[in-house]
Amino acid sequence: MGLTAPAKSHVVSIDPANTDSWMTTRLDFLVNWGRANSLWPMPFGTACCAIEFMASAASKFDLARFGMERMGYSPRQADVLICAGRVPFKLAPVLRRIWQQMPQPKWAISMGACASTGGMFDNYAVVQGIDTIIPVDVYVPGCPPRPEALIYGIMMLQKKVMKDRMGDTAARDEMEPDPKSQFYIPATLVDELSEPFGNSVQQTRSGM
Amino acid sequence: MSVFQIVQAGTAPGLPEPVSPRNVPHRGGDANPSAEALKLRFGGAVSRVDVVWGETAVTIDVARALEIVQWLHDDETQSYEYLVDVTAVEFRDRDQPMEMIWHLRSIKYRRFLRLKAQLPKGKPMHVPSICPVYKSADWLERECYDMFGITFDGHPDLRRILLWEQYAEGFPLRKDFPLRGRFSRAEQLRQALAANPEARYSMEELAIADAFEELPLDMRARIKGGESTGE
Lengths: 208, 231
Prior knowledge:
- Helix content of chain A is 28%, strand content 11%.
- Chain A has six helices and six strands.
- The relative contact order of chain B is 0.10.
């Protein structure tokens, strides 16, 4: 009865002959299964992507099917930050603070071209990708992405959550930003991530 | 004029019924009668009158802008009650002076008037603030200062409005401003992250300012010390 065979990570074993209703699985699997199916989003909507996000959350696409029905407008009660829209430099410290206020474990989805790369706004005012401010788990491309794309990104995140191992605590440690620059990553990497690409290479750097 | 006097469109006596303009010439249509009145009243301060696509632009002497706007607002025969926009234009031609632009609308007379003033290059740009006439000029002039670096003399609270107050890269809508800013991306982000998001609000902007006197002493001390909201 009970523990008949060593449980694999994704296996829930049950012994039908056992009248005490035992069930065995790995604690990792059980915890991750719970987490992945109740990711409470913290919507950080700044632009048109937020409209698509609202459409995803509304009845037709119904994010509640993925356990995301509760929008955590308080970062302290949220699991996944969904940054939907462009982030100007003025908003960078706000985004950083919201990320720091979220309790571990936490994940981030960068929704749309602007949040992921700055998009078409390769100018003085817009952050060239929120990965220069906070760590990002899933990037959803699109301008803006359709709800299906966001849901696909969320399902990818769920797969990532399922791969978490409780033994690996390093992944869940709260990162400390560099005290001088407040960066999570080296300054040279910020510059590298912000390099223009595509059509914006043709834009003039010097003005006149 | 009381503060909340309702102005109804086209209530001035003898005004024709409004018709949709047709076949408007690019240049040289009928000028807004206010242009002629301005020339009579202010003479030398009005340097030229252009009519482009049926809209009248009057170029005035920048030093007398406040006086002229005040008259246009107060005079019964003009009644420009509504300030549409305050902005500026810099041209690609380095020698061409910058232009300061005010858009005024008279609801009573159904008139639109564009005032322009030239600001020569190469010296600090000073323009009289029209806040004493139009309260709505407050943020418009702050935006113009933020983007072009034009100083509005007499503005009650002239500081940046869209960019943060510590922004050190200059004035973005000037032609000598590089599209991506002057600093490297890392430096821009470092400066942005160093800013306290709550320190950008003056006490006047916080709703709490209205009730400041009724607050407990310790809260007053904290707000005066620069903290805007508690965490």
